[in-house]
């Protein structure tokens, strides 16, 4: 069995931030990969840490921070 993981960051309009737009974007991606023989497994969150930026000679530095990214998991049977 093969697996594929695709990043997912839906673009939402601030005037209409409903889940409908995100669902439509997810549907487009899942359908595209299904046409290529991949089966949708699920949507997962991946936690990570963005490293701090020390800036230039110590000026303009930014602290690190945690982040969560969404990924879509697909599988394909051999």
Summarize the structure.
This protein is an alpha+beta fold. 22% of the residues lie in helices and 40% in strands.
Helix content estimate: 10-25%
Q: Which class do the helix and strand fractions yield?
A: alpha+beta
Separate helix tally: 1
What is the domain total for the residues? 1
Shape: flat
Proportion of residues in β-strands: 35-45%
Q: Could you name the ranges where pLDDT drops below 50 across 5 or more consecutive residues?
A: none
Tell me about this structure.
- 22% of the residues lie in helices and 40% in strands.
- The chain is α+β, with helices and mostly antiparallel strands.
- It has one domain (2-55, 62-76).
- A 3-stranded antiparallel sheet has the order 1-3-2.
What is this structure's SSE topology?
Elements: E1 2-8, H1 19-35, E2 39-50, E3 65-76
Antiparallel strand pairs: 1-3, 2-3
Features:
single chain, 78 residues, alpha+beta, three-stranded antiparallel sheet, 22% helix, flat
């Amino acid at each position: 069995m093969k697996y594929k993981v695709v990043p997912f960051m839906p673009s939402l309009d601030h005037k209409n931030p409903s889940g409908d737009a995100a669902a439509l974007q997810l549907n487009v991606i899942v359908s595209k990969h299904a046409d290529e023989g991949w089966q949708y497994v699920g949507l997962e969150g991946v936690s990570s840490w963005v490293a701090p930026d020390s800036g230039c000679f110590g000026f303009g530095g930014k602290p690190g921070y945690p982040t969560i990214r969404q990924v879509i998991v697909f599988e394909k049977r051999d």
